[in-house]
Specification:
6 helices, N-terminal domain of MutM-like DNA repair proteins, alpha+beta, four-stranded antiparallel beta sheet, 269 residues, DNA-binding
DNA sequence: GAAGACCTGCTA
DNA sequence: TAGCAGGTCTTC
């Protein structure tokens, strides 16, 4: 489900809801693999009593900064999401973990497909610069050195952290670059176009509160159960066979790096 | 690189 | 019923 803009939207909403300064009083884990390699008991032991000091994010990782050496790192994977409740604890149908916080606030982690993961560490490892912060220089350098196809490269979190399947396709369309183009074959104008497209697409999706397709369970919803406003702005993702918004040619669908990829073979070279 | 694994629910 | 899904890991 979530790429950077969706995680960032959730982070901002959790901040607004007043998570900061609350202490974790009780933890219920109903899908043990969520906290692997720890057991639910070991996880509970290390987290209960800790206070949430800040909420930050890097790439698709949400970081609950605790008053401890280790932080609580959360990866939502495909279908993870949070919601809040108060009053007596009531478990939702797909709740895999519930944190009972001081002041009577309950933080529910809902995850139908059970792919989401919690980890206790200071910071997530193996990530490149965050897509909201990356500067042109490292971006250009990596493109110049790589002979990989653009689509798999954009999805590589050690290159840029936070870009996923939706925004990779959207950025390639905005830059007018074919997803199978080799990174090393781009000239300076094309590199700049891709850099601008990636940062613009991610930024505008954050401004719009993320993207959600479909209309049912398992789709991305924010903290309040709302769909992201960016869903209206998507130009290629999920539109295979439909006309390109620029030239009208039907959009094509291929598989690259095991991911569905949609693009316009007329506009993207 | 490719393919399978991890999971469940929705849509065609 | 088959195929597909916003992500990543592991094993060729």
């Amino acid at each position: 489900m979530p790429e950077l803009p969706e995680v960032e939207t959730i982070r901002r909403q959790l901040c607004t809801a007043g998570l900061k300064g609350r202490t974790i009083e009780k933890v219920t884990i109903s899908w043990p693999r969520t906290v692997e390699p720890l057991s639910p008991a070991a996880f509970r032991k290390r987290v209960v009593g800790k206070t949430i000091e800040r909420l930050s994010r890097h790439g698709k990782w949400l970081i609950f900064e605790l008053d401890d050496i280790d932080n609580l790192l959360v990866h939502l994977r495909m279908t993870g999401g949070f919601s809040l409740s108060d009053g007596p604890l009531k478990k939702g149908p797909y709740d895999r973990a519930i944190f009972q916080l001081s002041g009577g606030m309950n933080l529910h982690f809902r995850d139908p497909r059970k792919f989401g993961r919690f980890r206790l560490a200071t910071f997530p490892l193996g990530l490149g610069p965050d897509a909201l912060e990356i500067t042109a220089r490292p971006f250009f350098q990596t493109l110049g050195k790589s002979n990989r196809m653009l689509k798999p490269l954009l999805l590589d979190q050690s290159f840029i952290a936070g870009v996923g399947n939706i925004y990779a396709d959207e950025a390639l369309f905005e830059a007018r670059l074919h997803p199978e183009r080799r990174a090393g074959s781009l000239n300076d104008d094309e590199k700049l176009a891709l850099y601008m497209a990636v940062t613009h697409v991610i930024r505008s999706a954050v401004e719009n509160g993320g993207t959600s397709l479909g209309n049912g369970q398992g789709n991305y919803v924010d903290l309040n159960g709302n769909f992201g406003g960016h869903r209206e702005k998507v130009k290629v993702y999920g539109r295979a066979g439909q006309p390109c918004v620029e030239c009208g040619a039907p959009l094509e669908k291929i598989t690259l790096a095991q991911r569905t990829t949609v693009f316009c073979s007329q506009c993207q070279e």
